[in-house]
Design a protein that fits this description.
The complex is a heterodimer of chains A (about 110) and B (about 110). Chain A is built from no helices and 11 strands. Chain A is about 0% helix and about 60% strand. In chain A, the strands form 2 sheets. In chain A, strands 2, 4, 5, 6, 9, 10 and 11 form a 7-stranded mixed β-sheet that branches. Chain A is mainly β and about 110 residues long. The model of chain A has no long low-confidence stretch (mean pLDDT about 95). Chain B has about 110 residues and is mainly beta. In chain B, about 0% of the residues lie in helices and about 55% in strands. In chain B, strands 2, 4, 5, 9, 10 and 11 form a 6-stranded mixed β-sheet that branches. Chain B is globular and about 45 Å long. Classes of the chains: A mainly beta (about 110), B mainly beta (about 110). The interface between A and B is medium-sized, with 19 and 21 residues.
């Protein structure tokens, strides 16, 4: 069966510091991969998605970037964090005719 | 662009009553409509979905209906229990958005014991 991992689970970072969040998927090949951010009490904001290695589509212009160095690995990065980057970061994978999405456990990021 | 509107934003019901959450979508080419439940501090979990060739689907106490003509779909929860309290998100995909899933803003459901 398929499994999705995210780490770290929790992160506290100072403003201006770099960021690297990692997501890996097991049990499937060539999944579509997604990064979402969820502010406290709010909805799901799509940040990036990828349909293959090295292919990244950006939905929101900001100080974040994403990379997909391997088929089942998706990385979210920032060179300099802002206070507004705080939130719950969710990775998701999808496949199949209807592209059903399944979410990872998330990383809760607090920028101070 | 593609849009999914979800109502109500907050819903409070008494235990044992029914709850209904409604969504409308803008892209008539959408063909897949999942519903997610998100408990506090947890990831959204897929609880039920419906495809465009089906008008209704039921799984125990939850059911989803789809009206393609009106571009409406709804989640129905019967005999609500306190553990149904969560945020519910509807979504639509398969249209012009390609591999993207368009989510509604969410409904916070409170079930009072």
């Amino acid at each position: 069966s398929q499994t999705i991992h995210q780490w770290p689970a929790t992160l506290v970072q100072p403003v201006g510091s770099p960021l690297s969040l990692e997501c890996t998927v097991e049990g499937t090949s060539n999944p579509n991969l997604y990064w979402y951010r969820q502010a406290a009490g709010r909805g799901l904001q799509l940040l990036f998605y990828s349909v293959g290695i090295g292919q990244i589509s950006s939905e929101v212009p900001q100080n974040l970037s994403a990379s997909r160095p391997q088929d089942r690995q998706f990385i979210l990065s920032s060179k300099k964090l802002l206070l507004s980057d705080s939130g719950f970061y969710l990775c998701a994978w999808a496949s199949g005719l209807y592209n059903e999405q399944f979410f990872g456990p998330g990383t809760r990021l607090t920028v101070l | 662009g593609e849009n999914v509107e979800q109502h109500p934003s907050t819903l409070s019901v008494q235990e044992g009553d029914s709850a209904v959450i409604k969504c409308t979508y803008s892209d008539s080419a959408s063909n897949y409509f999942p519903w997610y439940k998100q408990e506090l501090g947890k990831r959204p979990q897929l609880i039920i979905d419906i495809r465009s060739n089906v008008g209704e689907k039921k799984d125990q106490r939850i059911a989803v209906t789809l009206n393609k003509t009106a571009k409406h779909f709804s989640l129905h929860i019967t005999e609500t229990q306190p553990e149904d309290s969560a945020v519910y998100f509807c979504a639509a995909s398969g249209g012009a958005g390609g591999f993207k899933t368009i989510f509604g803003a969410g409904t916070r459901l409170f079930v009072k014991a």
